[in-house]
Structure formats: structure tokens, C-alpha cells
UniProtKB/TrEMBL annotation:
GO terms for molecular function: heme binding; iron ion binding; monooxygenase activity; oxidoreductase activity, acting on paired donors, with incorporation or reduction of molecular oxygen. This is Cytochrome P450. It comes from Eucalyptus grandis. GO terms for cellular component: membrane. It is found in: Membrane. Keywords: Heme, Iron, Membrane, Metal-binding, Monooxygenase, Oxidoreductase, Transmembrane, Transmembrane helix.
Length: 241
């Protein structure tokens, strides 16, 4: 089953496209401001070079006393850090929630099998088309024409919710990844695919697997309700008659 979504990228006020561009430029402005503030602090000796990563970059100078890492590079690195932090932390949060809600799976989860999960594939799919981003020529895909110059956006959750790839896609079932060969090429595209595939995918696998590994091997889920703030109770001995 092929599902499709169409967007016309016209920058009209109050469209999602407009707000996404607006949000993107706001984030960049905020980061630029932050870098400027840190530069001032460094110049006034109100901060140390090792206080944080941006300070560290800003304090590196070459023999001509020029900043080694440019402001533009600092912005890129900071955006990569956001890309790397939120994705993995959200993934861990969701895995914890799903394991909590599915105690049977939590008990059974064979962590070494999660470690084996890898994506692979050759054939052309939506994800593949999406990698082309801006079509350099007319592309005919399953009878749908993507004209030259048009963009293709893919929504990975539509692929992941495709029942022909993952039966009962909304069910939390880590065992479905046991047999990697059963997943069709580009069926699992958490990290995208093609030349712009996520460069942090291997790192993300490790940093999410390590806490989950320790969680399933060293901790257990206590099904009893526990007062989150502790229980303040004053116990007074009975008066002896
Ligand atoms: C669970 C964690 C992660 C997920 C689900 C994820 C997902 C993705 C996806 C789907 C893309 C492709 C976006 C596109 O089509 O343009 C991407 C790109 C990218 N990711 Fe990740 N990512 C994760 C973790 C990380 C980490 C840990 C890093 C860095 C250490 C990272 C750095 C990047 C960068 C720099 C790009 C842009 C690549 C390019 O455009 O050439 N990501 N990520």
C-alpha cells in the first residue's frame, strides 16, 4: 500500500511552511545571540574558556589571534547537538514508557536481539525518493509524477505504520525485529536512508541501548504503588494501661 501526502511549498503567512521557516530563523537568531553574549563574557573575563562547549570553541585562537572555530561552525555544531540530544532522549523516554506499560515484554526483552537491529536495503522507495529532495528531473513513481524542481517529503511514521511492512504496527512488539530479513528494504527508516542518512545512527544505537540494557538487566519494575514524595507518618506508641 502506498500512501501519499501533498504539500505545496508556498511561503504564505500562517501556513505550516511559514511557521517552520519562522521557527528555524528564530532558533538561529537565538543561538547567534547566545554566542555574542558568551563572547562578551569571555572578553570581560566573566567566564572561563572551559565553562561550556561554546566558550571552549570561542577561546581557541590561531597564531594570528583569529578564532579557530567560526561563528557559523559553532551554530552548526550546536544544531547537531540538538539533533543528537532530543532524538535519543525522546527515544529512551518512549522505550521506558512502553516497557512500563508492557510488563510481559519487559520481562522477556532479549536485549542482545535489540543490539542486532540494523537497517539495510537496495530498492527504490518513498524514503529513497525523499533523499532526492529536489527532483532534478521528472520522476515517475508507481504512476505518480513528481515534476522536475518539485520537492518530495517523506514521513517515516507513515512507512512504519504501513501494515504491509509491519503487521499490527501500533502494537509494541520488539520481537518483530528478531528476524531482520523479514523487514523489507527501507521498511525501517528511523534514521532516513541514502546519502543523507543520519550520521549519528550508530552512536544513537549505542547511547540508547546502553541505558536500556542496564535497565532490563539490573532493575526490575515494581508493580506496587509507591508514594512519590515518601510517606510522612508519625508513629506514637500506645499508652500502656
Ligand atoms: C534516535 C536518535 C536519532 C534519530 C531517530 C535520528 C534521525 C535522523 C533522520 C531521520 C535524519 C535524516 C533527516 C533528513 O532526511 O534530512 C537525521 C539526520 C541527521 N542526524 Fe540524526 N537521528 C538520531 C540521532 C542523531 C545523533 C546521535 C546525531 C549526532 C551525533 C545525529 C545527527 C544528525 C545529523 C547531523 C543529520 C543531518 C545529516 C545530513 O543532512 O546530511 N542524529 N537524523
Amino acid at each position: 500500500m502506498v500512501e501519499e501526502m501533498w504539500f505545496i511549498l508556498v511561503n504564505l503567512p500562517f501556513t505550516c511552511y511559514y511557521w517552520s521557516l519562522y521557527a528555524s530563523s528564530r532558533v538561529q537568531d537565538m543561538l547567534k545571540e547566545l554566542v555574542q553574549e558568551k563572547k562578551v563574557k569571555l572578553a570581560q573575563h566573566a567566564a572561563t574558556p572551559h565553562q561550556d562547549l561554546i566558550m571552549c570553541f570561542l577561546s581557541k585562537h590561531n597564531e594570528e589571534n583569529e578564532q579557530v572555530v567560526t561563528d557559523k561552525e559553532i551554530l552548526h555544531i550546536t544544531l547537531v547537538m540538538i539533533a543528537r540530544h532530543d532524538t535519543s532522549s525522546v527515544l529512551i523516554t518512549f522505550v521506558l514508557r512502553l516497557l512500563y506499560k508492557n510488563p510481559t515484554i519487559y520481562k522477556a526483552v532479549p536485549e542482545e536481539e535489540i543490539a542486532k537491529s540494523k537497517t539495510s536495503g537496495e530498492s527504490l522507495t518513498w524514503a529513497d525518493l525523499a533523499r532526492m529532495k529536489l527532483a532534478l528531473r521528472d520522476i515517475d513513481y508507481c504512476g505518480y509524477l513528481n515534476p522536475k524542481g518539485w520537492q518530495v517529503f517523506w514521513a517515516s511514521n507513515m512507512t512504519h505504520k504501513d501494515e504491509s511492512i509491519f503487521p499490527e504496527p501500533s502494537e509494541f512488539d520488539p520481537a518483530r525485529f528478531k528476524n531482520q530479513k523479514s523487514i523489507q528494504p527501507y521498511g525501517f527508516i528511523l534514521f532516513g536512508g541514502g546519502p543523507r542518512v543520519c550520521p549519528g545512527s550508530e552512536f544513537a544505537r549505542i547511547e540508547t541501548l546502553v541505558p536500556i540494557h542496564y535497565l532490563v538487566t539490573k532493575y526490575y519494575r515494581d508493580p506496587l504503588p509507591v508514594p512519590t514524595q515518601g510517606l510522612l507518618l508519625w508513629i506514637v506508641p500506645k499508652i500502656q494501661e
